[in-house]
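Q: Here's a chain of 495 amino acids. Please give me its 3D structure as tokens.
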Amino acid sequence: MRWDFFASTASVLAALAMPMGANAQPGPSTQSQSSRATPQQIFAEPVKWLDKTVSVDDLYCFSLRFEQKDRSKRSCMTLGSDKKNISDAYEFELTDPPAATAAFIDYVCYAARFGMQGGPFTLIPECRTKSATFQVMHLKANRSRSINVKNAQLVFDLPRPMDAVDFLVDWRDLQGKTVTVHGCHLSVGRSTGTHISCAVGTGSGRITNHIIIEEKTFARESYRRFLKECNGNGQEDSCTVDLIGTPSGEFLQMPVMHNVHAIWPEAGREAAEADRIKVEAEQLAATRPAEANRTAEEQIRLEAGRLAAARAAEYTKAEADRVATEKAEHAVAQRAQPSEAATIRRRDARVLQSNPADRVYTGPLRLPDFSGRDRTFSSYRTRIRDGMRDGPNFAGKLALIEIGCGTSCRIVYAGDLSTGRVYDIPLGGEDNPSLTLHHNLGSRAIVAYWGNADSCTREVFVWQGSQLERKERSEISSAESCSALLGYAPPLADP
């Protein structure tokens, strides 16, 4: 099932940016029973306010992660007397905030971005609340200026999410501001080397322009998921995301964004949107009965959508169980009756064993000279350096580095850890689709497969000091064997 990601994400963020209903105030349906109070009043007599719903103005919200304690928290606080230092501020720690509010605070108001460690820090304007309503719980142990609250309803003074095309037109007016851009197809920009970019547009002609994402400030989890799922080309549905970040300049006349977080399309956002509309419906029921009646149909539709999501999850689990069973049965069949592919793999093992490396290099790592001898390969210097730092994996002293170049496409380089020299391996690119390499540290041989699921080619190469020498080449016409050898079918057990 595909979710209407753009609509749901935009609606969730828009809900954070404005009161829910023309005459409704933010907060639960008990808003009419809430009392307005200052932080000083609450902390002066916390027992008096226990379990009461209060409204507090002008708070700044943030998220903190404690790596050593493996936990995190979300809080809103007042500024200190000097409006810069938090040492004399009042803190309200949020307990189980709504999903949309939690996501916004985690993505935009993460305290590590602005150095909030108990001293002066730079405020993020988007994290300031227009209004905050919550239920007081209790003071935190050993802390006289921190209190737990629940049922928080926060309204932030945010710009509405922008379509990616609108951002391309107006980005110069938004420099230095945190913005949300939806409709981005993440990919590695070919015209910008190894930069990560957001391709804008739809369908086969969607790349009308790019938004460059600054790699060193790209959120680590977003970057990790991009590398795992997008394969560098941005054509998968899962690579269409919303971005939260700050425009900071341009590169080759394309806008550059830093401090970027990606919001990925997931079914959970539909549930968050349903929760938001449910709260809005409760408020309308108390203040505008006519509008509440019109919202009833929308509630029914969302409840039906949530039920459909649950059924889809059950179907997905059943389908995953079926696929796992088929893979297990296939593996048993492979072991019971050796196939042509299994016979070829045993032959590959003998080839690797019969061409041993002279020795395994254990000396210091020497990196390439990309400004001189190895400048031909400078476009991929980051990937090559990272591959060499991982250590040798071929012929005793070489690091084979495979770099994606599109769907079923990769190019291969070899880096000599003892000299730093980079070699171009004559495999990969459009001439060798779906390239699969078999090699190891103790052997000078490489067994390469390429082609498609119907027919493929097997080649054997041996490293001769500065280049590969082809020793064998054969064609494989069995679709079953090619599927296994190229990784389309469940993998074979090592011989």
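Q: Can you summarize the key feature?
A: Residues 394 and 441 are 4 Å apart (CA to CA).
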